[in-house]
């Protein structure tokens, strides 16, 4: 197999095998985020970056900008990523893993290109990336891989810098444990107030994406249904969380749960994953539900789409129909989450066999090297990407 079949990869990943079997000494970690504005003047330029190439006029962008302006034009995502970077760095140092952590964003400063350049100037050219997204889809995995390839090429560092990426960690116990704790605490709160388990509904919420993209998420050969790997991964994690909580208290077997979606941004004519979280909340009283637990299962931290779409819109929807409601925490810098990310770094460096890797669903452990034709963007096709096999 050609060594270029996995572009911009280290020696351990170039063969294109799903899981690496060769240990790889990395020079540094590359934490990669979405980015967010730092003030009112940044909001429209940031949204232009996010929607580049779609021809969306500023008038329409201003509709979304109101969400940011409600919070002073500042997205909390950059502060959260700064905290996560520091927490990962501390955990690495405590384990004696002398790996600096660089941080670069897709859509706002600090930009990914600057992080890659800074790393290379310091002599750190074998980078292992962590994208701040746990699931498989174009926007949550492949687009980050395209960003890596673009950053390497645009900085003139092709053939010098390599970037591998840790596997998708949707079902790593370090990512899942904070959700189990959060849902458990919310259930106990309602139960201690005298709420019957069957009167509580749990809504696991994640970002909606176009149905056509969802169907193409993950490798084609897995045949995971209309929602592809994206929906299947969320459902599998939700099932695991509920299994753990029902084992603690069998009466919770009567507490129903479901996967819902939020934050759709496409035209009405384009099918996106449904049901919408607010639509479902409005229907719950007719189903005998008295309380709702909203779980931001698709998100790592309390960024704008959690603070606005869930804490503002979803909570208002619950209030309007008389439901008691609580939103559970995101992983943030929860100790188990941070240690889990560093476990993923160590796992990759040591080439741990897949059967020995930590995972809590039958879908895991996910692949080290993304498979060919994985997570296609229907509108853009396959662009050059690192950390996976070329289509």
TrEMBL record:
Keywords: Cytoplasm, Heme biosynthesis, Iron, Lyase, Metal-binding, Porphyrin biosynthesis. It is found in: Cytoplasm. Pathway: Porphyrin-containing compound metabolism; protoheme biosynthesis. Its EC number is 4.99.1.9. Fe(2+) binds at residues 207, 305. SUPFAM superfamilies: Chelatase. The keyword Repeat does not apply. Residues 1-20 are annotated as: Disordered. The keyword Lyase applies. It comes from the Bacteria. Fe-coproporphyrin III binds at residues 75, 144. It catalyses: Fe-coproporphyrin III + 2 H(+) = coproporphyrin III + Fe(2+). Belongs to the ferrochelatase family. Involved in coproporphyrin-dependent heme b biosynthesis. Catalyzes the insertion of ferrous iron into coproporphyrin III to form Fe-coproporphyrin III. This is Coproporphyrin III ferrochelatase.
